[in-house]
Amino acid sequence: MLLATIGLMDDDDIDLVEAGIALSLADNPRADADRLRRLVTDWAVRLQREAAPAVAKARALHLASLISGESGLTGDTRDYDNPLNADLVAVAARGLGLPISLSILYVALARRVGWRADALALPGHVLVAVHGGGESALLDPFDHGTSVSPARAADIAAQAGGTPPAGGFPAMSNRQMLVRMVSNQASRARLNGDTNRALTLYERLTSIAPDQAGLWWERARLEQRVGRLPAARASLTAMLETTHEPLAVDRIRTLLATLARSDN
User: Fold this and answer.
1) Cα separation of 262 and 35, whole Å?
2) Residue 245 has pLDDT above 90, yes or no
3) How far apart are CA 141 and CA 27, in angstroms?
4) SS3 103
């Protein structure tokens, strides 16, 4: 799967595992993508062979039992900032990952067997909501798939300086999950002063989510920083096509004018 293909797909048509593999292969073309495919397929077959539970808590327990209990996938608490924690193929191989990468695997597996599940965006964290039998159950993929109460979820948000929205924590779309995973890598690259790496990641982000204007802005700023002014202008022009907010349009045109003066 090409990254640009993801950007053209309707959100519901995005296969999270295959999209994650495409992102992994962009960094390491020799990554063992088939291992991840076999792992998810094996999990799904095993869930389908068992009596399918209809209750959310039982479904959540089954998911955690397979992914964390038997396969040992959980959060990397010792080396959280390791870029491999946001690489889906590497996560499956190492057994360690970030909240978002692990959540993608939980959600993808649940949906593979016809269960409804969502990744919930908390400040600085991601939980998974599994639905069934008219109820929902929360689990924390980063903490061995442990069951989480709504009160505990609120505490996690409070520790990161946030508060639960009135309607509960928002469920991320497929594209938002992928963007959050890659954005984790990009943020760390920028913090480490690796502008070229950050730019590479923002090029991927704008490929998989071309309608998100803010990604084009960050890409343009990085292109400007490394002296790729024609590319920065192209990114800003693409951003103009995705936003109609007056303040954002003014901001884009101001930077375009600055870049034009830089050429003279």
Assistant:
1) 49
2) no
3) 24
4) helix
Query: Would you state the structure tokens that stand for residue 128, as one six-digit string?
Result: 């998974």
3-state SS assignment for residue 188: helix
Helix ranges, 50-133 (H): 56-64, 88-94, 99-112
In whole angstroms, what is the distance from residue 74 CA to residue 85 CA?
Answer: 10
- Whole-angstrom Cα distance, residue 11 to residue 9? 6
Tokens standing for residue 84: 């491999």
pTM over 0.85: yes
The tokens for 263 are 């050429």
Going by C-alpha positions, the residue among 141, 138, 61 that lies closest to residue 97 is 141
Alpha carbon of residue 86 to chain centroid: 8
Per residue in 64-73, pLDDT (tens digit) is 999 999 999 9
CATH code assigned to 174-263: 1.25.40.10
Query: Can you say how many angstroms the Cα of residue 28 is from the centroid of all Cα atoms in its chain?
Result: 18
How large is the greatest C-alpha to C-alpha distance in the chain, in angstroms?
71
CATH architecture label of 3-159: Roll (3.10)
264: confidence class by pLDDT, cuts 50, 70, 90: low
Sequence length of the chain is 264
Q: Where in the chain is the domain with CATH 3.10.620?
A: 3-159
